[in-house]
Automatic annotation (TrEMBL):
Stated family: Belongs to the 1-acyl-sn-glycerol-3-phosphate acyltransferase family.
Reactions catalysed, as given in the entry: a 1-acyl-sn-glycero-3-phosphate + an acyl-CoA = a 1,2-diacyl-sn-glycero-3-phosphate + CoA
Pathway note: Lipid metabolism
Designated name of the protein: 1-acyl-sn-glycerol-3-phosphate acyltransferase
Amino acid sequence: MSFDLLLKARFVISYMKMIPKTIKIRQLIRKGDKDKLYWYATRVGNQHAREAIKIFKVNLHIQGRENVPKEPVLYMGNHQSYFDPYTMLALRGERKETYIAKMEMTKIPFAEIIAGSFETLFLDRDNSREGLKVILQAIEYIKKGNDVLIYPEGTRSKSHTMGEFHKGSFKVAQKTGCPIIPLAIDNTFKIFEATGKIQTGVDVYLTYLDPIYPDKLTEDERKNIDDLVKARIQNELDRLKALHGYE
């Protein structure tokens, strides 16, 4: 119990280290320099994510990043854990990325100003009109050159098996023609959700699968693109499970 509390305390301290940096974030917001704001806030979030990986001693195994083309892409990943976005945030590099996150995230102190400053969009799942606005904003980000990340399940599966994908998530690719990069992430739920207590030393596997180009799909594949993407991710999850022999 004490070890679990110690890890949580270290994580909270890492999070609190970002709070003084919101002073500069607010200054950049007032100056209206969106580019400097984005990259500064990204560095702040990136550092916290990397520290979280170290605190929980996560062994992150990455495969397939070479599959990402140079053009803007729509990342669509399965969602096992609250830790999923941390893996992506820790890997952020020179490409601009926009995440679509649940509105509940804005209730975390300072999260909205930090994440919002690196162009995160907050989705209210209970308000379809506002949800459409977020999708339209994501389309605009793709058009200006950002990659966009969305978890089409909309909630955590807490397991190796995915829930249903929401078709509305695919409008970003359908309206822009951008390639979809299916993301398979596995074992993150074992860090906390599996037992309710923090587990250290978990092997987490993140695979960037081959891009899917909407304009190269058949009419039937375009109509059922959610099933296509889900099947590719599930196949990778099954492969990882069989390869590494975990439950």
